[in-house]
Amino acid sequence: SQKIEQNSEALNIQEGKTATLTCNYTNYSPAYLQWYRQDPGRGPVFLLLIRENEKEKRKERLKVTFDTTLKQSLFHITASQPADSATYLCALDMRDYKLSFGAGTTVTVRA
Amino acid sequence: GAVVSQHPSWVICKSGTSVKIECRSLDFQATTMFWYRQFPKQSLMLMATSNEGSKATYEQGVEKDKFLINHASLTLSTLTVTSAHPEDSSFYICSARESGANQPQHFGDGTRLSIL
Fold first, then answer.
1. Residues A23, A102: contact at Cβ < 8 Å?
2. Which of A12, A31, A86, B98 is 20 to 30 A from A97, alpha carbon to alpha carbon?
3. How do A10-14 and A105-110 pair as beta strands?
4. Do B43 and A104 touch (CB under 8 A)?
5. Residue A83: pLDDT above 80?
6. Could you tell me which residue, B1 or A5, shows the higher pLDDT?
7. pLDDT (0 to 100) of residue B102
8. Are B42 and A96 within 8 A, CB to CB?
9. Distance from the A33 Cα atom to the nearest Cα atom in chain B, whole angstroms
């Protein structure tokens, strides 16, 4: 079965720096991959979707890359702010539009 | 756009009570909605896929008689936790996706269920 690893449970960075999160997967070839933000006690909020034929996607200060050879996606938050502090989840598409989620990386941005 | 509303946001009730949670897509039609469960500091676990006008499909290990799902319209799915017990206490989250290829899922804000 497929396995998704977000290889940092927690990431602490200084305001203004770039946060880089990693999502690795095995035993599967998704057609696309999604990144979500989740705040405590809230539902996930969709951030970015990247397709298997796309190498990179950007949205404001966010950037996602997708390497289907390495089976890896990187998620970057540039010029980080304390308001970016949250848990970030990667999710792979499965059959029938289902998503399989990683455990998440909790980012804390220090002022 | 793409707003999903979930209600109620939290429920506290006695053991043996049945609890209904509603999930609505406010500005789009969703032929498919999903129900997840999340334990503290863990990721979302898919419980079932809710299909408008047909029976829900449940993931392995999820009791369909315990978690009743109804998707009566293109904008509403409900999850009923029947005869709830303390071990059913959890954070339940729904999502809906717009039709078309490669569309993201949009999530409700979750329901915190506490069974005493």
1. yes
2. A86
3. parallel
4. yes
5. yes
6. A5
7. 79
8. no
9. 9
